[in-house]
């Protein structure tokens, strides 16, 4: 068999063929029958031939000879209001600089000689006050009523010292451009609106102070989560959202199916579900050929990866079909599930403590303005309680010691206390808020009957190596957003020795 001969088909493709005859000339041109026709404006019915050329002859495609490419510009971070006002001097170091601010109008106050426009770009809670005189370029847009609450604008001006008391700097406008007008009926005005009303305006509620602050804090928590685990040698695992397994074994899952597709000929989607001869659902006709669900946990995937990669963690959405309308039960939330190889319960508790203190410190340091807003308008004292989590040493006690502590308190609880009972919120709050004066508490070694089947059993045969972190006032709304939306499933400990 002769060597492989490289041939080029111009102008559209390349082909490599094996020659079975050594007598075939390597550079001899061959003609092939037309492979296809190309329709072009100059020759509507012109036939395109592909001819064989020598492998050493390289010709550029016809399009490349007449094409002049323009390079893509460099990506640059936008200058945001947080960059201007977020420094230690709150913008005073930028006095005299000409800057451009792009954002959405919060309020407009038109006076006889000057107009005040508050602009927010979402980077921080603070607005940039723009002071505009009638001589500024684009002032006619203010006079025509185009600059209203909700409008998106482009503003250029000089940073000057503010004469007001609410901010240290403001922007003296020399040019304004309305990028997008706002409808006169724009519903998010300066006055405070209820959360019930905002539920009906889901596309606009991120522009409010509360939802904007929550989004920034949540972003900081997510970033700090990845930062903590990456700095400590963990590998992030992307676990599937649709799964056929029930990780928790509770059966409270949302089903994912393509069987309920209406053809327009039936009154109910339920009538579309195919059945077997026994009257059961015929899952073989479903998309996956078996029952499938939204995941309740990525733990099973993390366990398999931990046996190969050592320390891993999952961080993604999970779903629970628990029909319980309380602040501690969410249908959808993001959960963090670390898996530590070659570790015991002490390593598990150390990891949980370090993680919680790390992310809380990060939020307090990097979201100060938003946390001050929460402390003033949402829940007073939240900063002090989070500071306790970040600074105080976590108390550790066994489940048995916790039960003894509750029994000795002589306090009357709604749910009776006895060994083997599942601790309720009132029990946890007494332990953290009263017994240990606001310190976070870790309770370990729970009875095996009230914990999941996969918990490692202790030598006493009655308890398992599981632990829960209790935080003071965990039932409060803001702490729920931090410690349940970013729930940490540290209760299972696995010692991998493979």
Q: What does this protein look like?
A:
The chain has helices at 62-65, 81-85, 139-143, 195-198, 209-231, 299-309, 345-366, 368-378, 382-391, 399-408, 425-435, 477-483, and strands at 4-10, 13-18, 36-37, 47-48, 51-53, 98-110, 114-120, 128-137, 152-161, 169-180, 235-237, 242-243, 255-256, 292-294, 312-319, 332-339, 395-398, 441-447, 463-470, 486-488. It is an alpha+beta fold and 498 residues long. The longest helix is centred in the middle third of the chain and has 23 residues, at 209-231. The two termini are 50 Å apart. It has a five-stranded mixed β-barrel with strand order 6-7-8-10-9. It has a four-stranded mixed sheet with strand order 11-15-16-20, with helices on both faces. Strands 2-1-5 form a three-stranded antiparallel sheet, with no helix packed on it. It has twelve helices and 20 strands. Strand 7 and strand 8 form a beta hairpin. The protein is globular and about 85 Å long. Helix content is 25%, strand content 24%. Among the domains are: 81-180, OB fold (Dihydrolipoamide Acetyltransferase, E2P), CATH 2.40.50.140; 195-231; 233-264 and 271-341, no CATH class; 392-497, BirA Bifunctional Protein, domain 2 (2-Layer Sandwich), CATH 3.30.930. The model is unreliable at 1-54 and 475-498 (pLDDT under 50).
Topology:
Elements: E1 4-10, E2 13-18, E3 36-37, E4 47-48, E5 51-53, H1 62-65, H2 81-85, E6 98-110, E7 114-120, E8 128-137, H3 139-143, E9 152-161, E10 169-180, H4 195-198, H5 209-231, E11 235-237, E12 242-243, E13 255-256, E14 292-294, H6 299-309, E15 312-319, E16 332-339, H7 345-366, H8 368-378, H9 382-391, E17 395-398, H10 399-408, H11 425-435, E18 441-447, E19 463-470, H12 477-483, E20 486-488
Parallel strand pairs: 8-10, 11-15, 16-20, 17-18
Antiparallel strand pairs: 1-2, 1-5, 3-4, 6-7, 6-9, 7-8, 9-10, 12-14, 13-14, 15-16, 18-19
Helix pairs in contact: 5-7, 5-8, 7-9
């Amino acid at each position: 068999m002769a060597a492989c001969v490289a041939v080029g088909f111009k102008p559209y493709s390349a082909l490599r063929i094996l020659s079975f005859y050594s007598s075939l000339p390597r550079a001899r041109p061959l003609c092939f029958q037309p492979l296809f026709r190309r329709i072009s404006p100059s020759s509507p019915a012109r036939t395109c031939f592909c001819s064989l050329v020598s492998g050493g002859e390289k010709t550029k495609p016809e399009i490349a000879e007449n094409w002049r490419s323009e390079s893509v510009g460099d990506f640059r971070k936008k200058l945001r209001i947080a960059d201007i006002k977020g420094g230690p001097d709150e913008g005073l170091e930028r006095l005299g600089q000409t800057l451009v601010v792009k954002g959405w109008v919060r309020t407009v106050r038109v006076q006889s000689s000057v107009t005040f426009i508050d602009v927010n770009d979402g980077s921080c809670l603070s607005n940039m006050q723009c002071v505009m005189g009638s001589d500024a370029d684009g002032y006619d847009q203010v006079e025509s009523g185009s600059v209203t609450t909700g409008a998106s604008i482009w503003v250029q001006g000089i940073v000057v010292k503010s004469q007001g008391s609410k901010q240290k700097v403001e922007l003296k406008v020399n040019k304004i451009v309305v990028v997008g007008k706002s409808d006169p009926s724009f519903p998010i005005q300066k006055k405070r609106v209820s959360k019930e009303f905002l539920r009906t305006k889901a596309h606009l509620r991120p522009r409010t102070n509360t939802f904007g602050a929550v989004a920034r804090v949540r972003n900081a928590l997510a970033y700090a989560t990845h930062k903590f685990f990456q700095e400590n040698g963990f590998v992030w695992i992307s676990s599937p959202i649709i799964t056929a397994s029930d990780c928790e074994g509770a059966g409270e899952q949302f089903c994912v199916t393509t069987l309920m597709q209406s053809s327009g000929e039936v009154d109910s989607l339920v009538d579309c579900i195919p059945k077997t001869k026994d009257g059961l659902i015929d899952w073989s006709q479903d998309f996956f050929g078996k029952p499938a669900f939204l995941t309740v946990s990525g733990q099973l995937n993390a366990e398999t990866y931990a046996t190969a990669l050592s320390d891993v963690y999952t961080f993604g959405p999970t779903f629970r079909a628990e029909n319980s309308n309380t602040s501690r039960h969410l249908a959808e939330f993001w959960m963090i599930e670390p898996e530590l190889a070659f570790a015991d319960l002490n390593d598990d508790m150390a990891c949980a403590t370090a993680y919680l203190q790390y992310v809380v410190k990060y939020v307090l340091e990097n979201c100060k303005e938003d946390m001050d807003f929460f402390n003033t308008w949402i829940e007073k004292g939240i900063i002090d309680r989070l500071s306790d989590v970040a600074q105080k040493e976590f108390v550790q006690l066994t489940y048995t010691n916790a039960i003894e502590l509750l029994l000795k308190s002589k306090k009357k609880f709604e749910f009776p206390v006895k060994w083997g009972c599942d601790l309720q919120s009132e029990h946890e709050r007494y332990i953290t808020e009263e017994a240990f004066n606001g310190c976070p508490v870790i309770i370990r070694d729970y009875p095996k009957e009230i914990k999941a089947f996969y918990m490692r059993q202790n030598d006493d045969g009655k308890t398992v190596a599981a632990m829960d972190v209790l935080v003071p006032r965990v039932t409060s709304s803001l702490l729920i957003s931090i410690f349940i939306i970013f729930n940490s499933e540290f209760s299972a400990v696995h010692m991998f020795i493979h």
